[in-house]
């Protein structure tokens, strides 16, 4: 039996990964992390979607210690989420230091327990916001460290790593979950479901990608099929 653990936030990217994984693996275990994030409504959204899609298990892990250790607009209510128009050469304040390290570490421990061969995450370096832990170099390096640490052969899968947001929308369309992802996921840093606030960088990238996909649907669908070896 092919088992996978999906790091699942209830947002566009992780939900797209989940609907694809459900078509590729026999047993799916979802992990959602509660770190008292500003957009923590995503936890409820994740629970609803996991239930609707009938995953094997869905666990919500309390890692609120992360909130006490980091300085980020996603963990500190007195720091404003920046407008997507605000340009900077620095890492944006929406970056949560160590978040992906912790997510992948805990997911690996859980995968070891349930005998899952794969951990799937929606990390992407194409349309990312300058987060250092969204780079493929980090994922590959950390995967090696994890397997050395727990003497395993767990594989980190990042199906969206080299896709832009338009192609991610195309992938959702391919798996017949376009409406579910458009209407019921939460990507917005300010915690607004669906189209979001239209203000933060997450909403901007989501909206921009959607518009590009809708204008070039057939072309992008063909491209995504080729990139992901889909029929």
Write structural notes for this entry.
This protein has a five-stranded parallel beta sheet with strand order 3-2-1-4-5, with helices on both faces. The mean pLDDT is 92. The chain has nine helices and five strands. The chain has 231 residues and is of the alpha/beta class. The chain has one domain: Rossmann fold (3-Layer(aba) Sandwich), CATH 3.40.50.620. The protein is globular, with a radius of gyration of 17 Å.
In CATH terms, the superfamily is HUPs
Mean pLDDT: 92
Helix content: 40-55%
Choose one word for the global shape.
Answer: globular
The largest β sheet comes out as: 5 strands, parallel
Spatial arrangement of strands, main beta sheet: 3-2-1-4-5
Strand content: 5-15%
Derived structural class: alpha/beta
Q: Span from first to last CA?
A: 23 Å
Rg estimate, integer Å: 17 Å
Q: State the assembly state of the protein chains.
A: single chain
Main CATH class: Alpha Beta
What's the helix and strand layout?
Blueprint lengths: L2 E5 L4 H10 L5 E8 L6 H12 L4 E6 L2 H5 L29 H16 L3 E3 L15 H15 L4 E3 L7 H10 L3 H7 L16 H15 L1 H11 L4
EC number: 6.3.4.20
Catalytic activity: 7-carboxy-7-carbaguanine + NH4(+) + 2 ATP = 7-cyano-7-carbaguanine + 2 AMP + 2 diphosphate + 2 H(+)
Pathway: Purine metabolism; 7-cyano-7-deazaguanine biosynthesis
């Amino acid at each position: 039996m092919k088992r996978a653990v999906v790091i699942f936030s209830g947002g566009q990217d992780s939900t797209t990964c989940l609907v694809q994984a459900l078509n590729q693996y026999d047993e799916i275990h979802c992990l959602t992390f509660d770190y008292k994030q500003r957009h923590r409504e995503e936890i409820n959204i994740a629970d609803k979607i996991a239930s609707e899609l009938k995953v094997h298990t869905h666990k919500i892990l309390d890692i609120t210690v992360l909130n006490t250790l980091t300085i980020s607009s996603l963990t500190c209510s007195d720091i404003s989420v920046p407008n997507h128009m605000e340009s900077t050469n620095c890492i944006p304040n929406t970056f949560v230091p160590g978040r992906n390290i912790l997510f992948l570490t805990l997911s690996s421990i859980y995968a070891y327990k349930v005998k899952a061969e794969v951990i799937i995450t929606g990390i992407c370096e194409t349309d990312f916001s300058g987060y250092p832990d969204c780079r493929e170099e980090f994922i590959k390096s950390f995967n090696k460290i994890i397997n050395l640490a727990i003497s395993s052969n767990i594989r980190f899968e990042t199906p969206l790593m080299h896709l832009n947001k338009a192609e991610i929308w195309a992938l959702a369309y391919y798996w017949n979950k376009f409406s579910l992802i458009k209407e019921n996921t939460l990507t917005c840093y300010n915690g607004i479901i669906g189209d979001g606030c239209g203000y933060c960088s997450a909403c901007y990238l989501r909206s921009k990608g959607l518009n590009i996909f809708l204008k070039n649907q057939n072309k992008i669908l063909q491209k995504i099929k080729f990139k992901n070896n889909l029929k």
